[in-house]
Amino acid sequence: MSYGYILHERAQEDYEIALRWYAERSLKAIDNFILAVDNALSLICSHPTRWRNEYKSFYELGVKKYPYTIIYTVDPDQQLVFVTSNYHNKRNPRKKYRK
Question: Would you say residue 10 lies in a domain?
């Protein structure tokens, strides 16, 4: 059974920053980035506990071909995935897991 997902406002902000950055470079890059993130979210929603559980209740899945990792938690009772961060892999790792 597939889960739904909710983007935390910080995750949404991270995503929008990445979209603006790729938009400045090329339209093809932004289209491919959107597809890669959508594919990663689809994989997460279809099997939310399949991916790495690195810290406490946080799971993570890398976005293919892009330096981003989607950090999320799972609520099995509501069948929801809460995306807490679209983390750029070059950022400070101390800020990777945030609620």
Answer: yes
Model's pTM, two decimal places? Answer: 0.85
Residue 79 is part of a domain; what is its CATH number?
A: 3.30.2310.20
Residue 97 placed within a domain: no
Residue by residue, pLDDT tens for the chain (99 residues) are 588 998 998 889 989 999 999 999 888 988 999 999 999 999 999 988 887 777 788 899 999 999 999 999 998 888 899 998 888 777 766 666 665
Q: Concatenated DSSP letters for 57-98?
A: TEEEEEPTTSSEEEEEEEETTTTEEEEEEEEETTS-GGGSS-
Residues 6+ positions from 35 with CB-CB distance below 8 Å: none
Instruction: Answer whether residue 93 is part of any domain.
Output: no
